[in-house]
Amino acid sequence: MDEDARDLRTAGFDELLREVLGRVQGVIDEQERLRLLLDAVVTMAADLSLDGVLSRIVGVASRLVGARYAALGVIGGGPNRPLSTFVHHGMDTEVVHTIGELPRGHGILGLIIDRPEPLRLHDLAEHPASYGFPAGHPPMSSFLGVPVRIRDRVFGNLYLTEKEGGVDFTETDEEVVVALAAAAGVAIENARLYEEAEVRQRWLAATAEVTSLLSGADPRGVPVDEVTADAVRAVVGLAREAAGADLAWVVDGSGDSPVAVAVSGTEVVVPAVVGAHPDLDVPSSVPDATEAGYAAADWPPLGPAVTVPLRTADESHGVLVLAWTAEHAHRHREVDLAQPAAFAEQAALALQVARARADQQRLAVFEDRDRIGRDLHDLVIQRLFAVGLGLQGTARQLQQPELAARVEQAVDELDATIRDIRRSIFALGSTDVRSDLQAEVERLVDRAAQTLKVRPALHLEGPVRTLVPAEVAPHLLAVLGEALSNAGRHADADAVSVHLAVGREVVLTVTDDGRGLPPDARESGLRNLRQRAEELGGSCDITSAPGQGTTVRWAVPTRRTP
Predict the structure, then answer these.
(1) Do 381 and 277 sit in the same domain of this protein?
(2) Does 515 have pLDDT greater than 50?
(3) What is the mean pLDDT of the chain?
(4) Above pLDDT 70, what percent of the chain?
(5) 363 vs 474, which has greater pLDDT?
(6) Transmembrane residues, as ranges (predicted)?
(7) Is the confidence at residue 164, as pLDDT, over 70?
(8) Half-sphere exposure of residue 435, counting CA atoms within 13 Å on the CB side?
C-alpha cells in the first residue's frame, strides 16, 4: 500500500509538472505573439504606400497565428460589393497562374462581406455557403476570417487558412487577428490619406504647369488655331499623367459629329471621329468608354472613363476624356471627379488666355503689315511706276531699235515687279490666316519635314490662294496631310515632292521614291482619299510598285458642274 501511494504521489507530481511547464510555455508563446503583434503594428505604420501596407498585413497575420495561407480582400463599390483587390500570401506564382482569376467575393468570402464579423471554421468545404475550389487550388480546411474596419466602414476582410499542425484556429488566434485588423485599419487609412495627398499634389502640379506653359508660350507668327491646338495637346498630356490614365483626349463637338482633336497615351491618328459626345455641362464617369461611344472604333479597347468639360463662362474648348484599360480599372475608382474638374476649369481659362494673347499678337502683326503695305503702295510702287513712264518716253526717242527693245524689256520687268509687290500687299492684307491656302500647304510641308528624313520639295502652280473653292480647301489639306503622313511612316523615302496645280482642276500630286506599297497594305487611309475626291466630283489615282516608290494624284474640278 505504501508503494502504491508513493506511485500515485509520483504520478500526480509528474502531471502537475507537465501542467506547469505547459502553462509557462503558453505564457512565453503569448509574450512572443504580443511582441510580434507590436512589431507588426510598428512595421505597418512605417509604410506609406497602400499596396505595401496590404502586403505587410497579410504576411504578419500569417506569422502571428501560424497560418499557411493569408489574404486580404478589399471591398469595392456597386450593388454586389465585389472584391476590387485581393492581396494573398503563401501561394507561389505558378499556383496563382494555374488558379487563374482571383476571388471576387462569393461563397464564404461573400458571407463575411454581408455579415462583417469574425468567423472560425473547422473545414471550409463543410460550410453551406462554400463554393468549392477551382482546379489547381491547394487544399484548405481550417479558416479564420476577420473584417478590417476604417472608422465605421468595413474596408475589407482578412482571411487565414490552414493552421500549422492541422488544428483549428483558437479563440486566442481570433483575438490576436482582431487586434491586428484594428491596427491595420489605422495603417490603411494613413496610407490612403498619404496617397490622396500625393494625387492632389499631382493635380496641383499639373494645373500649375499647364498655366505656366500656356502663359509662357510665344505665339508670335503662329496662327491662333495652331496655338490653341498645341495648348490642348499640352493639357491632354498633363491630365493623363496626373490621373494615371492609359489614354486621354479632347472631344470637339462643334461640327456635325464629335471629333477627337488631341490624344495622349497611344499613337493614334487625329482628328478621329468618335461615336458619341460626352456631356458638355457636368463631369461624369462611365463604366466603359468604348461601349459609350466616346472612343474611336479603331482605338485600343478601353474600360472606365471620366469626362470633364473644358469650358469657361463664355467659351467651350470641348470635353476632356480620361480612360483606363480594364486591367487598370482600379485606378479609375481612385479618381475624385472634383480634381480633374478643377484642373479642366483652370486649363480652360489658360486656353482662353493663350488664345487672347495670340489674338493680340496677330493684331500687332496685322498693324505692321498694314504699315508695310501702305509704304510699298505709296512709295515703292509710285516710284517704280514713275521710272517706268520715264523709260517708256525715252524708248520712243531712241533711234536704235536694239536700245529701244532693251528699254522696253526693262519697262516690262518693272511692270512685273509692280504686280509682284501688289500681290504681296494683298497677301499682307489678308486677316484670316486660315483662309490662306498656300500658307497652310507650306505649313503642312514644313511640319512633315520634321518626321521625314528629307524636306519635301514643294511646287505651286497657278492662283492657289484665290481659285481653290472654300469647300475644296479642307479636303485638299486633309489629303496632303494623309499622303505626307503615309510617306513618313511607311515609305522610308530619300526624296518626296509635292506639286499643287490650280487651273480648271485642283491637282495635288505627292511622289516619293520609297519602298512602295506592300501587297497587303491597309486600304483605310487610301480609301478616304478616294472618297474625298469622289464627293467633289474628282478622282484619286495611286500608283505604286515595290521598291519603286508611290505617287498619289488627287484631282477635283475647280467648279462643280450642275
Answers:
(1) no
(2) yes
(3) 76
(4) 78
(5) 474
(6) none
(7) yes
(8) 10
516, 546: one domain = yes
DSSP run (H or E) holding 253? none
Listing DSSP states for 58-82 in one string gives HHHHHHHHTEEEEEEEEE-SSTT--
Question: What is the predicted pLDDT for the residue at 29?
Answer: 53
Q: How many domains would you assign to the chain? A: 4
The pLDDT of residue 263 is 85
Alpha carbons 103 and 84: distance in angstroms, whole number: 10
Does residue 169 sit in the same domain as residue 253? no
Q: Are 308 and 320 in contact (CB under 8 A)?
A: yes
Structural domain containing residue 410: 361-428
Place of cell 507668327: 221
CB 156 within 8 A of CB 148: yes
Q: Are 155 and 148 in contact (CB under 8 A)?
A: yes
By CB atoms closer than 10 A (0-12, 13-18, 19+), residue 71 is buried
Q: Give the Cα separation of 182 and 187 in Å (integer).
A: 9
- Gap between the Cα atoms of 421 and 407, Å rounded: 21
Over the stretch 522-541, which tens digit does the pLDDT of each residue have?
665 678 888 888 888 999 99
Higher model confidence: residue 161 or residue 353? 161
Same domain, 441 and 412: no
Residue 516 has pLDDT above 90, yes or no: no
Catalogue the E-assigned strands of 81-165.
83-89, 119-121, 143-150, 153-163
- Cα–Cα distance, 261 to 246 (Å, whole number): 17
Calpha distance 143→176 (Å, rounded) = 15
Q: CB under 8 Å, gap of 24 or more: what pairs does 218-225 form?
A: 219/354, 219/357, 219/358, 219/361, 220/361, 220/365, 221/361, 221/365, 222/358, 223/358, 223/433, 223/434, 224/355, 224/358, 224/359, 224/362, 224/433, 225/434
Count CB atoms within 10 A of the CB of residue 422. 14
Q: What confidence tens digit (pLDDT) does each residue in 467-513 have?
A: 888 888 888 988 898 888 888 777 778 888 999 998 889 999 999 88
Domain boundary among 400, 428, 456: 428
Q: Is residue 22 part of a domain?
A: no
- Is the same domain home to 351 and 366? no
Cα–Cα distance for residue pair 137/98, rounded to 1 Å: 8
Angle between helical axes of 50-65 and 171-215 (0-180°, round to 10): 170
Residue that is last in its domain, among 194, 227, 260? 194
> In this structure, are residues 118 and 178 in contact, taking their beta carbons and an 8 Å threshold?
yes
